[in-house]
Amino acid sequence: MVQSCFGSSCSQVSWSNQAPNPSTGASCLAMRSLLLFVAVAQATHVEIDDAGLTVFLQMEMKQISNDKKASANTHPWPHFRGAIPGQTGVSDIVAPSNLSASLAWSWHHPEGQYHTILAGGPVIDSNKNVYVTGADGIRKFSPEGEELWKYKPPGVSNNAPMLMDDKVYGSDKSGYAFAIDMETGSTAWEQKLASENGGDSGYPAGFDGVFVVGAEKGHDPVSDGGNKKIWGLNASSGEKLWDFEVATP
Predict the structure, then answer these.
(1) What are phi and psi of 33, to 5 degrees?
(2) pTM score, two decimals?
(3) Fewest CB atoms less than 10 Å from the CB: which of 41, 42, 139, 195?
(4) At what angle do helices 50-72 and 25-43 cross, to 10 degrees?
(5) Left if phi > 0, otherwise alpha if psi is -120 to 50, otherwise beta: which for 161?
């Protein structure tokens, strides 16, 4: 039992080393931070009034809320090369030596084996859902292999999707960048960046609220293809934030 006094208020608080109940976890974390705050103030002979205490608690609860949101938005494999930043393409999960004998599920295109072409590798969200791009659209599969939705971009896409927060992002060869609601598969936004995009332009990525994507197909006489510009888009709205023109596509 700890008794702390500040301003005109005194309180008694029970301390427990047990893990907090999820429904009261944020309150427990805030109270523990408060006790530490008071202890440091008393040790350094700093007086705390009621207004200061209120401000501290508000800031602490806001930080806890932000931390919980950040944790919920962390996807284990958001890009075809893994976590961002980093993108090393390396996972700490060891695959079984015999994949055919170890498959949990498999998917086959309903119209035949060669009906579409898959682009790059899949990406995986924090709930272990899998997202795959084919020439005919982007599909979301549950951890059990159920197809949850399919999104058809404005044009043909040969780029793997990428995940950031609650959206799926991508681009297509008709010059569009787009974002999809991760839960429903509906269009969040579509942004026309160029008349066409290069088909061999790598994969888009995003970080800290910015979606970075190549656009505007290059027509270099030595090597036709690639993109002449890199765009930074607001991940929430698709608004153009900046662009950079490369010397050679």
Answers:
(1) -65, -40
(2) 0.69
(3) 195
(4) 140
(5) beta
